[in-house]
Automatic annotation (TrEMBL):
GO terms for molecular function: uroporphyrin-III C-methyltransferase activity. Pathway: Porphyrin-containing compound metabolism; siroheme biosynthesis; precorrin-2 from uroporphyrinogen III: step 1/1. It is an enzyme of class 2 (transferase). It comes from the Bacteria. Signal peptide: none annotated. This is uroporphyrinogen-III C-methyltransferase. GO terms for biological process: methylation.
Amino acid sequence: MSEATRTSVTLPGFLGLPMFQPGWVWLVGAGPGDPALLTLGAAHALASANVVVYDALVDERILALAGPDAQLEYAGKRGGRPSPKQADITLRIIDLARQGKRVLRLKGGDPFVFGRGGEEGLALVEAGIPFRVIPGVTAGIGGSAYAGIPVTHRDTNHVVSFITGHDTTGGVTGNIEWEALAKGSPVIVLYMGLKHLGEIATRLMAGGRDPDEPVAVIARATTPAQRVLETTIRRAEADVAASGIEAPAIVVMGPVVRLRAALDWLGALDGRTLTADPLGTRHGQKKTGS
């Protein structure tokens, strides 16, 4: 990104935002993509940092908010592709802080939701580096909302589970009680799960999940390239393959997906006609889910 494209943001002093001190590391969530979802704290951090160490999924429009003199360092980790090692990233931000830099570690979504921010924070404590955490809008909530899907709704669910589709080995997450999850969580939001979607669906169905339960796959959530595929658990793997949808994507499983027929606000901007009562609850019909 050229220096000329950067636009520093000056925030009013009455907000009482903390000073970004030299030698500190701020672990900051950039949200799922749309710059409109940045917090004021994140925008302040971008304007104040000397160095921005950013992840692969941080939108370039967000990086453009860094100060004109800020150094931008790419530290993106993408599954299945050559990526910096986590240990090297952690050592780099520690080294920069020890040089007296104001170090912004900028992560897609929220740093503490499948973002390895906890690991980096623990390393900073061990190294004696002061740090601050600024949460961000996680993709499971923000991306679902941009697809017109609320992750909770009182007519469908009082529980939602956020899970990751793979563990440190790259295989399907092994320490999940799939039967308990299938029976106990009406809504499941799956991060980083496209690679193993078929196997995950099989485990959930074996645990008692309805094969015809609605599923939404949301790719490039909240960005201009966002795509949403509606399918079912039974057909999810085949439909994703046929559609050509690729990561990054989140997957929402459960009755809340039906609400998209009424709440697809982005679709409405493009002319989609919304359905007022997709669950049929206003006319005494049986509610969906639990």
